[in-house]
Amino acid sequence: MKLTQKVLITIGREYGSGGRMIAEALGKDLDIPVFDKNMITMIAEKHGFDEADLESDDERLSNPFFEPYIAYGVDTASRSSRLYALQAQIIREEANKGSAIFVGRCADDVLQNYPCLVNIFIYAPRLDRIKRIMVVEGIADNLAADKIVRRIDKTRRAYYQFYTDQKWGSPENKDLMLNSSALGLEESVKFIEDFLERLGYLER
After folding, report:
1. DSSP 15-84
2. Residue 185: burial class (beta carbons within 10 Å; 0-12, 13-18, 19+)
3. pLDDT in tens for each of the 204 residues of the chain?
4. With contact defined as beta carbons under 8 Å apart, do 22 and 185 qualify?
5. Exposed/middle/buried for 140, CB within 10 Å: 0-12, 13-18, 19+?
6. Which member of 1, 2, 13, 181 has the lowest number of beta carbons within 10 Å of its beta carbon?
């Protein structure tokens, strides 16, 4: 299979839905880069920041009144805002280079005025997500796993809605909403590829 034209794919995801794994598999099949947590490494290397400090602010809001100041080089109110601005810069720079997949980090909003944009949201029933992170992260207690799922979903929701003024997980401005449990991760990737083919971005 090959792309027939440039495409920018954004993938929002509920925690434990397998969205990151779907993005990585899709990127491998289409032979295009996937930008996710690797943006943290890119920013740390480019600006000389501590990667652990950046990770602590990734996709979460921070309160400027209860944090030490870290000069990320962007004059905004909080550490998370400075990191958001740097990630948005990378998203735009990479989108200008060619086809790519962007996972989370409000990429659908950052790229809203770009042509060739396909916005996808991956979700799954909470019980399925709990089972998945118990396996992937080695968590034995399902109640502990449930608490993690709820906390991270809540964090992502607050982050997304703060920076976009849109409802996280809403079908508004999404081209495809996909329940990853309905087909499984492998078939979900194939479903997205079929969708891209129907849109004219892909040929087999």
Report:
1. TTS-HHHHHHHHHHHHT--EESTHHHHHHHHHHT--HHHHHHHTTS---GGGS-----SS--SSHHHHHH
2. middle
3. 899 999 999 999 999 999 999 999 999 999 999 999 999 999 988 888 888 878 878 888 865 433 444 444 444 457 788 889 999 999 999 999 999 999 999 999 999 999 999 999 999 999 999 999 999 999 999 999 999 999 999 999 999 999 999 999 999 999 999 999 999 999 999 999 999 999 999 998
4. yes
5. exposed
6. 2
Task: Give kind and range of the element (H or E) at residue 108.
Answer: helix 107-110
All residues at 6 or more sequence positions from 75 whose CB lies less than 8 Å from its CB, including other chains: none
Retrieve residue 193's tokens. 């590829």
Dig out the tokens for 50 from the structure.
């501590």
Closest CA to 118 of 105, 92, 94, 100: 100
d(CA 73, CA 81): 11
Amino acid occupying residue 162: F
